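User: I'm writing a short report section on ligand binding and want a predicted complex to refer to. Could you take this sequence and NDP and write out the structure as tokens? A short remark afterwards would be nice.
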Amino acid sequence: MSKRLVILGSTGSIGTQALDVARLRGYTVTALAAHSNAALLEEQIREFKPRAAALFDEAAARDLRVRVADLSVEILSGMDGLCALAQRDDADVVLNSVVGMVGLQPTLAALKAGHDVALANKETLVAGGELVMRTAREHGVRILPVDSEHSAIFQCLQATAHGAWAPPQSVADMGVSRLILTASGGPFFGRSREELRTVTLADALKHPNWSMGQKITIDSATMMNKGLELIEAKWLFDLPQENIDIVVHRESVIHSLVEYNDNSVLAQLGVPDMRIPIQYALTWPERVPSPVPKLDLAAFAKLTFYEPDGEAFPMIDYCRRALAQGGAYPAAVNAANEEANAAFRAGKIGFLQIGEAVAQVLEQPLPKVTCVEDILAVDEVCRRRVREAAEP
Ligand code: NDP
Ligand code: MG
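Assistant: Sure. The structure tokens for the complex follow:
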């Protein structure tokens, strides 16, 4: 079936792969948005001919308006621009692949407008999981997971659901006893905490299995990515964190698993290529051919599994604590991580200080959060503290 897509974050790693899928499937692209990459967005506009586009950055949006003055595309800017695209009534699905908390308001806008959201932007669910899932439920729309682990679980659950299943539908009556998220372990697998003290940005950007944007690549090196995914899984699949485990699986062939109450376990496998989960989110409940290579298990010879090392990589524990403390704490750890991750990339702090910044917000008293404004306020305060601490 042909679909009409809005893609937020179209110039990024997920966004460009989503456009590969759209090109192959012949989907209509209604609108595209990014932060400031006017040159690439111009190319995408010329190829996909959306009716509207947006750049968050005002100056870049002005530049883009000049670049595409010969076309009849409307160019918007800022958060209002992103939300306006997310609400357009000429779309079937909004794919949110912006990086960071900035994706929260556009996700809510899309859900309120009655659109299914294909969600790569995990920070949205970490910071505002309860609100996002409630909004989807109230508006009778779906959150289609794009993150590979959550897509794997989503795909496994189809086997035991009575009919096509998608969040925020309940997993009750499916007999699910445990979700097992796989983690690659990142570039520093096997290193001690002491050895991590002196690692550089270049070392941290060498991910063994996936080529992704810089922020998530650093999150993979600290293993914060798996902590964020734990929180993401809790909200998407509505299970207590005690029923969600993490196992390090170096080859990234098994993308995650679902255990049932008879101790039978289903898993989803494939070569590590995001075009499978992106495409599945867009074609669900159908499967269609993809350009992704076939899995050749014999070529791997063996698949390996390990317990995560909580001493060298404490981020998963911090995220478990944030969930246990509840309320604003998941938003706070996400905010501290976003800011510390950026400070590390800017050369302002060392690798281990990213974790220290996240640990600190868990010790701070935080108010209750009930609406998006509350979440944004907590986000801002936690970021400011990390920013100020990172300045010399
Ligand atoms: P990239 O850094 O490659 O791309 C980020 C995209 O978001 C770019 O298009 C960027 O625009 C845009 N963007 C950033 N800030 C804003 C803003 N304020 N307003 C509008 N657009 C903005 O990231 P990835 O594609 O790697 O990751 C995107 C999301 O998907 C993240 O949440 C990540 O955790 C998640 N994800 C990614 C995976 C991957 O394989 N890459 C796997 C699983 C999840 P510009 O180019 O102009 O800066
Ligand atoms: Mg993932």
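A remark for your report: The pocket of NDP (ligand 1) is lined by residues 9-15, 33-37, 56, 82, 97-99, 102, 120-123, 147, 210, 212-213, 215-216, 274 (CB under 6 Å). The chain has 17 helices and eleven strands.
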